[in-house]
């Protein structure tokens, strides 16, 4: 297990290195630069001012030299300064990361808390009326666009009923528009989480139920499940200890992929609920041509996606002993062949 973990960490470092070069090149090749944006806001600026500012910020040097300087600073812990927000990039990323992590964590816990019992129930009674109703709700949840669901929740529970706030952040933060500051904690009063968490959870719970149901139906028809029934094991023990771990393997893959997708693509939900997270931060940084902030934020998102897939690979080996035994057999064969 330790050897597998180190191999995965090495692969993750290689992926992050390649992604950093690709993203830096794409951002550097975008039309315009921060100096053009600064000069557009100042009608009295001259061409000499533009040349002086480009030399000051190093934008007159080749792209590969700027990347080497940025990479050296990044490895030393210096992520640079955000021109757009006039704050250190590390402070901005810390607040936005916690905001998104808490939001997605609550949404995934809520979705899985609903999907696990409903998926197992519909698999154990696939032809019952309850299973048919659950399948209908799954199709409805998969078909609803997330942005429309968010607007619907705001209209019903905030505008019409007045029970919950329409925005995902307290009024102080929404008015200031800052990502960092005294009021930037991700741990807000409970009612601020309800609508954004519900929008993300309801958008994904239908797919989770479908995967859990399909995996459980396949697992319950396996030979070892029939053997367990013949031995007289209780249905609850068969489901929890034998069928569910096998059925969760494809679900873990979907969760790992969804985590990365939500972490980087929650910009729509964060925009609708004014939630200052990573998706919104990346959008603002790219639109504002903020090199350091955009690159560091995209690398952090890539690292989270790679980490989620690594955790999925390790969980495979924990849930299914056949994967562990196959890997051990392959490793022993290679060592025997080398001897």
Task: Please name the defining characteristics of this protein.
339 residues, mainly alpha, MetI-like fold
Describe the structure.
This protein folds into 2 domains: 2-82, no CATH class; 88-338, MetI-like (MetI-like fold, Orthogonal Bundle). Mean pLDDT is 76; it is low at 171-178 and 180-185. It has a two-stranded antiparallel ribbon. The protein is 77% helix and 1% strand. It is flat, with a radius of gyration of 25 Å. With 339 residues, the protein is an all-alpha fold.
Distance between the termini: 22 Å
Q: What name goes with the CATH superfamily of the largest domain?
A: MetI-like
Main sheet strand line-up:
1-2
CATH topology category name of the largest domain: MetI-like fold
Poorly predicted ranges (pLDDT <50, ≥5 residues)? 171-178, 180-185
Query: In which range does the helix fraction lie?
Result: over 70%
Kindly report the average pLDDT value. 76
User: What is the number of beta strands?
Assistant: 2
Strand content: under 5%
Tell me the overall shape. flat
In short:
The protein is mainly alpha-helical and 339 residues long. The protein has helices spanning 2-28, 34-40, 47-57, 63-75, 89-124, 129-143, 146-160, 171-176, 191-220, 223-230, 235-265, 267-272, 278-287, 291-319, 321-338; strands spanning 81-82, 87-88.
Secondary structure elements and pairings:
Blueprint (H helix, E strand, L loop, with lengths): L1 H27 L5 H7 L6 H11 L5 H13 L5 E2 L4 E2 H36 L4 H15 L2 H15 L10 H6 L14 H30 L2 H8 L4 H31 L1 H6 L5 H10 L3 H29 L1 H18 L1
